[in-house]
Specification:
This protein is about 30% helix and about 35% strand. The protein has three helices and six strands, in the order αββαββαββ. Helix 2 (about 40-65) crosses helix 3 (about 95-110).
Length: about 140
Amino acid sequence: MKATDLALNRLLGIVAAPAGAGHLLEMPFSPVLQNHLGTVHAAAQFALAEGASAECLQKHFAAAVGEVFAVVRSVEVKYRQPAAGDLLAYGLPDADTARNLVTELAQRGRARAVILIDLKDRGGTLTFHGKFEWFISRRPPPAA
């Protein structure tokens, strides 16, 4: 499943980046995203960043690991500058994740992945930096 398939992300206007772009997702500015200051609401920025972290995992590891169960486990966030326009989401796995995720998942059947996300406006201003930690497992989630 792609982040752009989720109802909340569609509601927020989150779309995939154009082919060949250096970023993962985009969120065009609209009145529904505005907070009381007229800038992009923190919750909307967080939703874009979380979706981008999932897209980053898929982009970098889906071919190597196949189908897995993944959930966000923890997040560190820093809002840097007010966002007053379209936002672009950039992401990369941290060095440990890039080096060890595939091997750890193969050996243990589960792994931790850390994805670093930056949100920037079209002018390149950094508005948000986040560190998303994911729990990934080859096993299906327990029955409820």
